[in-house]
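### Sample
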Amino acid sequence: MKKVPFYPNKKDDLHCYQATLRMILKYFLPERTFTFADLDDMTGFQKGYWTWPMRGALSLRALGFQVRDIEEFDYHRIATDPERYLIEYYGEQAGKEQIRFSDIPKCKRDAREFVKQIPIEYRIPDYTDIQDLLTQGYLIKCLVNSKILNRKKGYVGHFVVVFRCTDHSIYFHDPGIPPRKSRRVTKRVFEKAWGYPNERAKNIMAFKI
């Protein structure tokens, strides 16, 4: 099993993405230290907003990381017509939550750069993709619905770092809140949270040096 360092979300509950990147960076670059202030800068964090993954992926690529992105989500549409596309893609409930907590003009700018620099496989990933990428030495960041992971109703987009999976269970660091190191859930529960509100929402962003 990979020994991946764990870092919790900050108390503001707006730094799950930064926490996941901090884990990935420390695992592959153990001699270096990245603070939350560093990660705020690397990810383009803005107080009161959720952090989209584009800027962080670009920052890690600049550090020499290999980045693989597998999802059906169309960043070209985010660069041109994000609000309409988010409702189309996620549905009314989840789409409006994404819009409410997003700096839309910034998303458009980052998406334009993202599609130029990051190779994107435009397809719906499946569980075997996670297994294969872990075998190849990647760590995997997934966006999931934390409400489902915590057996609640509703939607909150949340990033986790996957480091192990079997045919029946998946293991990941959940930065919280509440933070849960080496969390294990069944494949069924993870698939439901990962594929919310439908299979098209499944996503993988994988990193390694």
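The chain is about 45% helix and 20% strand. This sample (Peptidase C39-like domain-containing protein) is used throughout the tutorial notebook.
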